[in-house]
Amino acid sequence: MRDITHNPDARSWVASANAVDSDFPIQNLPLGRFRHNPLEPWQIGVAIGDRVLDLHAIGLIDHNDMRRLMAVPADARSELRLALWQGLSEGSALEKMWADALLRQTEVELGLPCEVSELTRFDASSPWAPVASAGRASSMAASGQQFHRPHGLLRAQGPEHAFASQASAESASAAVALGASLDLSFEEGFGAWAHAGIAQGAPVSIADAESCIAGMTLVNDWCARDLGPSQMDARSFATTTSPWLVTPEALVPFRAPHASAAPAHLDSAANRARGGLLAHIEVWRQTADMRAAGQPAVRVAQSDISRLGWTLAQLVTQHTLNGCQLRTGEVLMTTGLNTAAGQGAAVQDGDTIILRGACVAAGARRIGFGECRTTVLSAVAGPKS
């Protein structure tokens, strides 16, 4: 439900938040973690324009535990949002006091929104139900991640050599050599971060599913399509996320109808009416040569969440249907966006891939997710055969 914090005409005393192309106007107020150097503990902040506001320093929280903050009830999260909106609004009496707690985002390190407890990947382009597979939480990193080209067993190419999980066990014999991947690609998507934990054996109904989501980020689910024999070999090495958690309250003006056939347990009138989201992603690429020449990245792909056949609420319900528990800080990650738009071209050593996403709707101020940036380094020597 819209409230005063969604007023598209509201302005902030933080001047950069009022720029028309800012991802973080006063209508957004996403949460994240920052620190000055690797020796310091993570602190909790909110993005406003090109700055980050230290929530502990201004007295709105008395701790720096993001999981604890993510687990608060929705009404408490709304109260925090309102307090931030009032304090950051143009003409606020708190400007002088809060200005001392503002830091430039470029002068701090931005980390994961919180430590990831679990990571589940959904191919939500599936026509009958969202298909899930486990990811590796330890391989997830915030924007700015750099990773070496993955190394492993190279599979023979062609549709007859599908992953072992999708075909017969004979696909394991398709591994023909040990080496660095030659078919590395990006897969853009969204990550839904879990709110309070759900106990094992307690399936979540479609009516209650959205209350389990604390916020959303952009994710780049990297895939080495020629490594095998399993999906784990192809995907376990790196996943990148944007650092700012855009809350459900910020997303209210961008909810939209979602029309797709669904099994009864994944269907409801409310989900059909407002289960969709007016959000899109652009993919930008900068090669090493472009960077050396001072040339900016160029856009190579774009997609939007409407390509997904299933809503975020449906993913939560499907995830817990068999009694699977859900922990605070777990990420339910959607893929299948650029599968629908056409797979991205193979990424080369030195390439930087940048995801940029935003929500746009009539009568609402545009809000963004910030960047999700990754650079691919050359492969390191693998184990001797």
**Largest beta sheet, briefly?**
7 strands, mixed
What percent strand? 25-35%
Model regions low in confidence, pLDDT < 50 over at least 5 residues: 158-175
CATH superfamily of the largest domain: Fumarylacetoacetase-like, C-terminal domain
Structural class: alpha+beta
CA-to-CA gap between the ends? 60 Å
Q: Provide a count of the helices.
A: 8
CATH architectural name of the largest domain: Alpha-Beta Complex
The CATH class label of the largest domain is Alpha Beta
Average of per-residue pLDDT values: 89
User: What is the number of E strands?
Assistant: 24
How many distinct folded domains? 2
Shape verdict: globular
Give the proportion of residues in helices: 10-25%
CATH names the topology of the largest domain as Fumarylacetoacetate hydrolase, domain 2
Radius of gyration: 21 Å
Strands in their spatial order, largest beta sheet: 7-6-22-13-14-17-8
Describe this structure in words.
With 385 residues, the chain is an alpha+beta fold. It has 2 domains: 4-110, Fumarylacetoacetase, N-terminal domain (SH3 type barrels, Roll); 119-377, Fumarylacetoacetate hydrolase, domain 2. It has 8 helices and 24 strands. It has helices spanning 66-70, 74-88, 95-99, 231-235, 269-274, 288-292, 312-320, 337-341; strands spanning 31-35, 43-48, 51-54, 102-104, 109-110, 119-123, 131-134, 140-142, 145-148, 151-155, 175-180, 184-185, 188-194, 213-221, 223-224, 227-228, 239-241, 255-256, 276-277, 279-286, 298-304, 331-335, 352-359, 367-377.
